[in-house]
Amino acid sequence: MSKKQVRTLIVALLVVVLALYFIASTYARYTTSLTGKAQVTAAKWAVEMKKDGSTVLSNGFNLEFVVDANEFVVDNKIAPQTTAKAKVLIDLTGTEVATDLTATIDDSVKADFFGASASDVTVSTSFAKAGTTNFEISNSGLVSLPNQTTALSGSVEMTITLTWTNDDNHNVSDTAVGTKADDARTFEMPVTVTAQQHIAG
Amino acid sequence: MNNKQKRILQLFIIIVLLLLLYIIIKYFGRIDSIGKGGDTTKIDVFDIVILGEESEDKNEVKTVVKERSQRINDEPIRNSLENWIEESEGKEINIINNVVPQNEIENVIDTNTVDTNTISENTVDTNTVDTNTVDTNTVDTNTIETNTVEGTLVVHDEEVQYGNSTTVNIFKHFNEHRVDNRIAPEDSDVYTFYVRNNNPFDIVYRFSFGEINNDRINLKFKLKKNGNYIISNWVTGNELAASNMELGSKKYDKYELEWKWFEAENDTEIGQKELSKYYMDIFFYAVEK
Fold first, then answer.
1. B54 to chain A, minimum CA–CA distance in Å?
2. Mean pLDDT of B125-139
3. How far is it, in rounded angstroms, from Cα B185 to Cα B263?
4. From its phi and psi, is residue A94 left (phi > 0), alpha (psi between -120 and 50) or beta?
5. Which of A86, A66, A88, A85 is nearest to A77 (CA)?
6. Containing H/E element for A161?
């Protein structure tokens, strides 16, 4: 083998080694892959509002206010210094979050009807457990979970009380309401009953 | 044979040798004796199982997996994923619960006491720390028991170490107004996990998250690496990813995944469903630098 051939062979070997180095560094590296997985379930919301204990209400429902007996006012009529009540049953069975219950009325409608006396007409709510429940309800309408492993079970009776307080400063506007034509003296009050997931402040 | 012919023959032999070498390496895997390192790390067979345990639409699950696999650039992994998808066709999809038993990991973590930037390599020697004798109030995350997988990439949170399709508890949080393991609108928390390089060599890693969110729960995420946001805007689970993350030998990165369910119009609809689940998978891939 001539010197030239030996040189060529050495060069060729060098090329092979270099190629080997680059290819090896491309393909002969350690690799690792790992995978994880997670899942979470949305808390269930299973609130139903009912009238008369069973009829499930949907938007636009009608509730009838029952005027509290008052010896100075004809039955089922309201006047200054009277109150009226309506009840809604709120079934929370299956709900997995604490819940706030509220009721509001549309102030603009109230103002249209009562005029200056509108500020004397207020709505308040009270709550009571209806039958067997596994939760407690606060005066403000917060239904708390019994614990962190159990969904709510049972119903709440919400009482919406309309109170027309007498204010002698508003006698004129009170009288204006009372002297409306017969068909204009029925007040349809938009009440919004809301059950909302409680979010800690 | 004259000189010219001899030279041509030599060149031809060299080319054939090179071709052979290329084919051998490409189709028969690495040649260990040539590779850098020298540890006993092996390629883990990529196994992704992210399937909805109770998902009604399994085809959708497969589609999501397929889409995600197409985004993965590494050919072997992509092939592995696609093979898995093909194998899954026509079969019932099962969840593989490959949870690392909690007792395999010493839960002695106090991430607040140590500045990750000041930890020297000497203090990160997991082989010398006896987790049984260390005061839990002063031990940092380096004391988590990783000896069982020495010499590999280790990803762990404060409960489990990631393997193949490990179930992790990203959404674990406490809220007295929720039933356990449930989330509701406005819920939020932070999930912390660590990527640790136990190898004697530096690595480059990447990871990506993916979600299966059939009910369009408005969950969004941000991500911090070692205290600094690498994803600072709220993004969906499918947009969570990081690549080209370099990590020195015996070093680790701490990640904080912030999540929040932002209120949306369909929240009530979601809550009213019999079962509404959100699935997330995490995929890590590391390669020797």
1. 11
2. 35
3. 5
4. left
5. A66
6. strand A155-164
Which of B18, B26, B171 is opposite residue A27, by nearest beta carbon?
Answer: B26
pLDDT in tens, B69-102: 444 444 444 454 455 444 444 333 333 333 333 3
B 148-207 residues with CB below 8 A of A?
A: 152-153, 155, 162-171, 174-186, 199, 201
Residues B154-180: pLDDT tens digits? Answer: 899 999 999 888 899 999 888 888 898
The amino acid that residue B143 corresponds to is: T
For A198, the closest chain B residue by CA position comes to B177
pLDDT on residue B138: 32
Q: How many CB atoms lie within 10 A of CB A175?
A: 11
What are the residues facing B211 on neighbouring strands?
B280
| ipTM of this complex | 0.75
> Looking at the complex, does the CB of residue A30 fall below 8 Å from at least one CB of chain B?
yes
Written as six digits, the tokens of A121 are 């007409």
Q: Coil, strand or helix: which one is B11? A: helix
Residues of B in contact with A23 (CB under 8 A): 21-22, 25
Neighbours of B116 (CB within 10 A): 16
Element (H, E) at A194: strand A191-197
How much is the mean pLDDT over chain B? 68
